[in-house]
Structure formats: structure tokens, C-alpha cells
Give the backbone structure.
Amino acid sequence: MTVQISIVNKSPHALPEYQTEGSAGMDLRAWLPEPVSLRPMERKLIPTGLYMALPQGYEAQIRPRSGLAIKRGLSLVNTPGTIDSDYRGEIMVPIINLSTEVQELTDGERIAQMIIAKYERAEWLPAESLDETVRGAGGFGHSGTH
């Protein structure tokens, strides 16, 4: 199943695309006039030059690329980041350098992945109590280590 999304690309780079037939995410590329350096633990917003109009009922989730995370220690400050259907600004990627070395990003580099997801809106139903489950109120670590 596919969804059609209007997109404006002000960068010279190709539109985001799936790298394989089974890919859930499309790679986003940096649009930079010059390379950007990030010191250890430094955060910067990286532009993509992309603007889109998601249909209502859809969001775009921005997630780290696993290769950048494991090889260079680059991740996203908030992950997954959400782009709402009513946002029309530029897609910006909040990158953080979690490594112990300065990392450089260059124009056209694949910096994140974007997943388009359908969602449902919720309506709260105030209640005096909730139904019982086996888990109950068991929280973090409740199910054990194995």
C-alpha cells in the first residue's frame, strides 16, 4: 500500500527513497553549503531542503541510521522525531555526536531515515477503574531478564 505525499525539494539532491524492496524507511540527506563538524556531545539541526504536506492521519517518523550510530556514534536528539500532518516547514534533523571524536557531516550525506506511518487519534473515556490483567501495574523490568 502506498500513500501519495506532496513534496517540495529545494536541495540539489534526489528525493528520499527506499534503499531495498523491504525497507521501512527512506534516507534523508543533509543539505549543507559547507561541511558541519560536531564535537563530542554537541547537537545541531541539519537541514534537508525538503518540505512536505502529509495527509491527515499520517505522520513522518525521523529515526537514526544504524550505520551512522554504530560506526560514528551519531544519533538523533529525540528519536523517533515526529513530523505532524499540519507542519509545512523544512524537515530538519537534530543530530547529536555521542562519540568521543569530532564528526563531520557533508552535503548529500545520508543522515537519518524517515518512516511514514498511519495513526489513530484517541478520545479519552473517563473511568473510575480499569479492567484487570495478569500484568496489572507491573512496570519496567516486570517480566524478568530471560
Summary: The chain has a mean pLDDT of 94. Residues 66-72 form the longest helix (7 residues). The domain at 6-12+24-118 is CATH 2.70.40.10 (Deoxyuridine 5'-Triphosphate Nucleotidohydrolase; Chain A).
